[in-house]
Amino acid sequence: VMAEAALVIPLLIGITFVITEFGNVLYISNSLNQVARTMARYAAVSQNYTTNGLLTSAGASSVLNTSNITTTITPAAGASRNIGDTITVTLVYSYTPIVNPFRLFNSSSNWAPNLRTSAVSRSEVKQYP
Known about the structure:
The protein has helices at about 1-45, 50-55, 60-65, 100-105; strands at about 70-75, 85-95, 115-120. With about 130 residues, the chain is an alpha+beta fold. The longest helix is centred in the first third of the chain and has 44 residues, at about 1-45.
């Protein structure tokens, strides 16, 4: 019984960590998608917007670590745009795994995947430079 437990317990612990990590990635990915959609919606109806203002309006700090988010908004804040122009919000989140399996093999490895999402919206206001 002890030999079987010695073989099965590490496997069960590993499966538990994989399930936890997968759930965490899904949660962050879903939150990132929602923040990007909300930012694009706010940018579409705002004449003047800033990246930080959109992140605050979208409530990003309540669900994500905003220091890990890189934001790209096209057209940039302050650029001219017409009604009907496309506004694209792209977010890149530097994800840090709960359990980093690569540190077991190489302690100097800084492995961290990036989660990416984009949202597109139609501008509803005209912006002059």
